[in-house]
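User: For my dataset I need records formatted as: sequence, then structure tokens, nothing else. Please produce one.
Assistant:
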Amino acid sequence: MLLLVDAGNTRIKWALAEDGAAPGDWCAHGAVPHAELDRLAAAWLGHGVRAAIVSNVGGAALREGLSSLLPAVPVEWFASGPARAGLRNGYRDPAQLGSDRFAAAIGARTLEPGKALVVATCGTATTIDAVSADGRFIGGMILPGLGLMAASLARGTAQLPHAAAGAAPPPLFADNTLDAIASGCLAAQAGAIERAVAAHRAECCIVSGGAAAHVAPALALPYRLAENIVLVGLHAVARSGEDRQC
């Protein structure tokens, strides 16, 4: 059994795949916040994990914690490089690209091969990246996620209430302050994605991440909602069998 792990800024997402399974075809998956890392040992126990591939952007302490859960399992700590799994990295310094962004782009190309793509991952931060039809990661943008946007307004403006990121979608032109904050944050997220799609002339927009279900319906364009796009990319990397520095 192959273990796939996306250790992000807030949560640890994981999936288990049988040998030969297609990317995204998992027999089990889940997610826990960083504080509940120890719960993963029980979730993975008894599945016969023989190897793992991990994207970690949560820092050295989280890596150490994950390593302690997999003492006898060979682990690839996925990192961005010049190319992987059929995707070339167009970043000025390929190693500087976040491993989660590179994996998400690989996952997007796996789901929609041969197309000009925009992949938006809506989490603690929102990342919006462009992939060319011939398989090149072009680059992208990073902005505060939906929750961070709402929280920054609550912290920075004493008279404004805190708007929950997961609240029901408000009307665009809200008639109360709480809904106006939520509407503005959603419009900012959707507007950035729509601008990227227009500039790249993307044939497909893939939206993923914890806040995707809230952001995607605000888009005024077609989109594909993909759960755990980083894990899809990691699965594709594991199946490619390529040398990690190729």
